[in-house]
Amino acid sequence: MKVYSWNVYCYNRSLDAVCRFIEGLEFDVICLQEVTPELLECLKAMPYEIAYHTDVIRLYSPRKEELNYVVILSKHPMSYRGTLQFPEFPFPKYTRYLIALMTGLGWTLITERGSVYADIEIAGKSIRFFSTHLTLWGPSNRNEEFNELMKHVQPGMPTVIAGDFNVIEHPAMKSINWLLGAPFHEGLPWYPERALFEERFRRYGFKNPHRKKVTHGFSRSQLDHILISNDLKAKSAWVLPNLHGSDHYPVGVELHD
What we know:
The protein is an alpha+beta fold and 257 residues long. It has helices at 15-24, 37-44, 93-101, 139-150, 175-179, 193-204, and strands spanning 2-7, 29-35, 49-61, 64-74, 78-85, 109-111, 114-122, 125-133, 159-164, 206-207, 224-229, 234-239, 251-255. A seven-stranded mixed beta sheet has the order 6-3-4-2-1-13-12, covered by helices on one side. It has a six-stranded mixed beta sheet with strand order 5-7-8-9-11-10, covered by helices on one side.
């Protein structure tokens, strides 16, 4: 069983290449983040089962907003589809000023962040898959969102949680956390967010097969994850080398049947 996760990047100008890549990919389930309305229509036309929900609403101005989506595509039947909403976080004034200065690069205020999950029947087994996109606005907020996600894990049910967790690992890049609204200590080079998240994974009964793999070149971190519950086993895990217009590499894992 092959599972993929990919943040396709909401400003991706290569949507035809994205669609061709997905259509040619050998997968059982693929989870996508930052899907635009245009790409969503392409995905809906593919001959797969689909579940989707609002990832984020980007607030460009009082009169202009854009929805991005999280999506699950499956070559196997979905017996249940569910959604969840993450809590809203306030932005400090300096972060609002920074966003205003960076609007030319596509930065915006955001609202209505959510996630999607689906129960998929594969080889006589029901597995719950999540496609999620944790906030960029600091480790404490990511932790709160992850805990919210855990409320929708069904005890005793095999589970895969795939998505962009935005865990920034490289010491030189961690100041981004503070610039985007996190407390000052969470932006220091030695703040151990990765270690804290790995312990959180273990506590909730999940494994991270892509540990220590870089999935996002600019941050030099493992932003993208395919977590698997302890009752599932990974044969292999990999990062594909072509971005197809995104800033994230697609990541995949093969699970034992």
